[in-house]
Design goal:
By secondary structure, the protein is mainly alpha-helical. Helices cover about 45% and strands about 5% of the residues. The strands form three sheets. The protein has a three-stranded antiparallel beta sheet, with no helix packed on it.
Length: about 375
């Protein structure tokens, strides 16, 4: 229930609740979606993390942390301070400040401008928000749980403000708003082999955490369950899990806490989805295509290796021109395909499906015939 006196939700225990112990590989709590979101995909104009800046990087040798993260980190600061300026002095003032930032970036003096803005609005550290190093630095179970609770509480407070009133949330939203620029660098082997592995294993999940979270209410409920003692997170990041068949119970043990913590649990509920793989697919069609050598795994063994037209690349290296693979199955070759498309900000899936349909139907003249008929109908209606 919502407690008006303290301004947050409370959980009233019945006494029959199970003891819930949670953990994850990176040890970080989820981030909530802003209570009110803006879709700035078409309107936000980046200063540093532009398509031209990304296109200038060496394809096949891009290092995310060395080449992309400095641009993204700078852009997050741009968004953070411009939101503060807009809140304080209005949109026109923010636009003037943006022009100043563009000039400063070209002259290599943007950090000086950030320092001046920090005097009024405080310093902003994108690394602390995305990588949350204090989580990994917790030395024992109690300190780790306190840190998780505090980080989640801060996120809930920022989410409640809405994206337009939270400079922090708006800066994090850039991972979604500028996702196409990320894809420009990552898709089809843009990253170096080492960086691609690091991106798949570590960075991609951090980006997803920042912008693909549950609604605000779920964060409020999680805080209430922690306060009521129903949910605990005692293990720290990436604990070791084993099953003891002699007693029929699971054992979970910390791996990164200086003071170890371990306990046994009755049941394990997995909340992790494996990346799609052609060598372990439950799909008879995909399994047969893989066995016949007509499709092969993408980067790191994930998904199906495809070219820019969506055609799978066979085990021989040849392109399969009469096959198309779209969506989540291309994860690995392409970045971030697990989403529900919407007309404005997540329309990449629509574009790919349209190209596929045009290629298939166009070969028989169906597309041209349909377009001609539509034009004729428009003339008649007019």
């Amino acid at each position: 229930q919502f407690d008006a006196q303290v301004g947050r939700r409370r959980y009233l225990p019945s006494g029959r609740e199970p003891r819930i112990l949670m953990f994850s590989r990176n040890g970080l709590p989820f981030c909530c979606r802003p209570a009110v979101s803006m879709d700035a995909t078409d309107s936000y104009r980046p200063v540093a993390f532009t398509a031209d800046a990304v296109a200038a990087l060496p394809r096949g040798g891009i290092d995310f942390m060395h080449d992309l993260w400095p641009l993204l980190r700078t852009e997050m600061k741009v968004a953070y301070y411009l939101t503060h300026v807009a809140m304080a002095d209005g949109a026109a003032s923010a636009e003037r400040r943006r022009v100043d930032m563009v000039d400063a970036w070209r002259q290599g003096a943007l950090d000086k401008l950030f320092n001046a803005l920090a005097v009024h609005y405080g310093r902003f550290d994108p690394d602390a928000q995305v990588f949350v190093p204090e989580i990994a630095q917790a030395e024992n179970s109690a300190r780790y749980q306190q840190t998780v609770y505090r980080v989640l509480g801060q996120d809930v407070a920022e989410s409640a403000k809405g994206e337009e009133r939270s400079p922090l949330k708006f800066s994090l939203e850039l991972f979604r708003v500028l996702r196409d620029n990320l894809r420009l660098a990552i898709d089809f082997g843009g990253l170096s082999a080492a960086s691609a592995t690091d991106f798949r294993r570590r960075i991609a999940s951090l980006i997803t955490r920042a912008v693909v979270g549950p609604p605000l209410r779920r964060g409020e409920e999680m805080l209430a369950l922690i306060e009521a003692g129903v949910v605990r997170m005692p293990f720290g990041p990436s604990p070791r899990v084993s099953y003891d068949a002699t007693i029929g119970r699971w054992r979970v043990a910390s791996t990164q806490l200086q003071t170890p913590f371990a306990c046994e649990v009755d049941a394990m509920v997995l909340g992790y989805l494996e990346q799609p793989g052609v060598d372990r697919s439950a799909s008879p069609l995909l399994s047969r295509l893989h066995a016949a050598g007509r499709v092969r795994a993408g980067a790191g063994g994930s998904g199906v290796n495809v070219n820019r037209d969506g055609h799978p690349i066979a085990a021989s290296g040849d392109v399969e021109p009469r096959l198309w693979v779209l969506g989540p199955l291309t994860e690995g070759t392409k970045y971030f395909n697990h989403y529900v498309p919407s007309p404005k900000s997540r329309f990449n899936a629509f574009r790919e499906a349209d190209r596929c349909a045009r290629a298939i139907l166009g070969s028989s003249g169906i597309v041209e015939k349909t377009i001609s008929e539509s034009r004729a109908a428009s003339v008649i209606d007019g």
